[in-house]
Amino acid sequence: QVQLQESGPGLVKPSETLSLTCTVSGGSVSSGSYYWSWVRQPPGKGLEWIGYIFHSESPSYGPSLRSRVSMSVDTSKNQFSLKLSSVTPLDTGVYYCARGGAVGPVDYWGQGTLVTVSS
Amino acid sequence: SYVLTQPASVSVAPGKTARITCGGNNLGAKGVHWYQQRPGQAPVVVISFDSDRPSGIPERFSGSNSGNTATLTISRVEAGDEADYYCQVWDTSSDHVVFGGGTKLTVL
């Protein structure tokens, strides 16, 4: 059974960088079979795809966040990470790491982690 | 960028059939996935690739996709089906994942 777990600060100050890590168990992030995604959800609003990373290829980022986002994979720790720079209160929300989204559906999700941007 | 449009809300009485639509340009040419999200929980896929039902999803859930509209159909609606539902595609022209805005299903 694949499990994903997000970790990182729950509170980030405006203009700083939000950093989250997703630890994967029961599967390998280095597998060439799956895309590893980040999705966020502002309070009371819908799902927003942030981006995905696939094997050794360049990540793909959503258009609204592309200028502030970067993703990476650490195969030695079986983790993938998200960095979102220059955050504002509009970046507050639950951040999910997930498997899939491209080609096939998201079949596994992390439990989600609430990140609040506030001074 | 590709846009998926869903109604904000759908209401249905218990035991009746709920239909939630998802609209997009030439959507029938893409594979549509549907997710159910209950409050405080991560989404769960209920339909993949237009009409495939993952293991563990009741047969009451079905999907179709043609032209510019995909539809999630929930038959014999139960109180436990009350949730937010999202459609999703992969836009191969941009390599982007796209979610619809979500539909809140209310069971009357």
Short description:
The complex is a heterodimer of chains A (119) and B (108). Chain A has strands spanning 3-7, 11-12, 18-25, 35-41, 48-54, 60-61, 69-74, 79-84, 93-99, 108-109, 113-117.
Can you walk through the features of this model?
- The complex is a heterodimer of chains A (119) and B (108).
- Chain A is an all-beta fold.
- In chain A, 0% of the residues lie in helices and 48% in strands.
- In chain A, strands 2, 4, 5, 6, 9, 10 and 11 form a 7-stranded mixed sheet that branches.
- By secondary structure, chain B is mostly beta strands.
- Chain B has no helices and 9 strands.
- The chains are: A mainly beta (119), B mainly beta (108).
- The interface between A and B is medium-sized, with 22 and 23 residues.
Q: Can you lay out the helices and strands and say which pair or pack?
A:
The complex is a heterodimer of chains A (119) and B (108).
Chain A: E1 3-7, E2 11-12, E3 18-25, E4 35-41, E5 48-54, E6 60-61, E7 69-74, E8 79-84, E9 93-99, E10 108-109, E11 113-117
Parallel strand pairs in A: 2-11
Antiparallel strand pairs in A: 1-3, 3-8, 4-5, 4-9, 5-6, 7-8, 9-10, 9-11
Chain B: E1 9-12, E2 18-23, E3 33-37, E4 44-47, E5 61-66, E6 69-74, E7 83-91, E8 96-99, E9 103-107
Parallel strand pairs in B: 1-9
Antiparallel strand pairs in B: 2-6, 3-4, 3-7, 5-6, 7-8, 7-9
